[in-house]
Amino acid sequence: MDRVDTGMNWLSRAAMLVMLVLIIIQVFTRYILNDPIEGVIGATELYLMPIIVFGSLGYLEMYDGHVRVGIVFDALPEGLRAGFNVVLRLVAAVFFALICYGASREALKAWDFGYRTSGDIDAPLVTTLVIAPIGCVLIVLRLLMNAAGDVQFLRGASDRTG
């Protein structure tokens, strides 16, 4: 799972680099050559931004980098903190599983009806709609793995004290 999350993070980084290069080229061709290239905005909003967001979620959770109220959370005893982590991670896993379910339904609907993107890029809409469910599945798996690790920590702590 670490390799998958790391690979998706590298994909997110590559998408960010591609987006940067495309936008620089777009600005150059628009303001210097007065002939902007087409498709940059469409590629950015349909593919690159979703890859950046959903591709890095699992990696960020792998390193426990998501936002939390540190002043309160860090003041708790280790055992209580691990217990809260289990609950919070399970709630987050359910939340992302629901997002995955809804996004998957939309992707399947786009596939069934043959929906296509509008604007500069003409492609099947499903090609962009599958990005969110893939990222959500990965973060759900990572959240469940981290929750299991917290449960093991709690078991070990109870063995040490009991």
Describe the largest sheet.
Answer: none
Tell me the β content.
under 5%
Q: Report the order of strands and helices.
A: HHHHHHH
Our count of helices gives 7
SSE class: mainly alpha
- Rg to the nearest angstrom? 20 Å
Shape assignment: elongated
**Helical coverage, percent range:** over 70%
The separation of the N and C termini measures 33 Å
Count all strands and give the number.
Answer: 0
The overall average pLDDT, rounded, is 90
State the low-pLDDT regions, or none. none
Characteristic terms for this protein:
single chain, mainly alpha
Q: Could you explain how this protein is built, in words?
A:
The chain is an all-alpha fold and 162 residues long. It is built from seven helices and no strands. Helix 2 runs parallel beside helix 7. The mean pLDDT is 90.
Outline the secondary-structure elements.
Layout: H1 2-31, H2 40-55, H3 57-62, H4 70-73, H5 78-113, H6 126-129, H7 131-161
Helix pairs in contact: 1-2, 2-7, 5-7
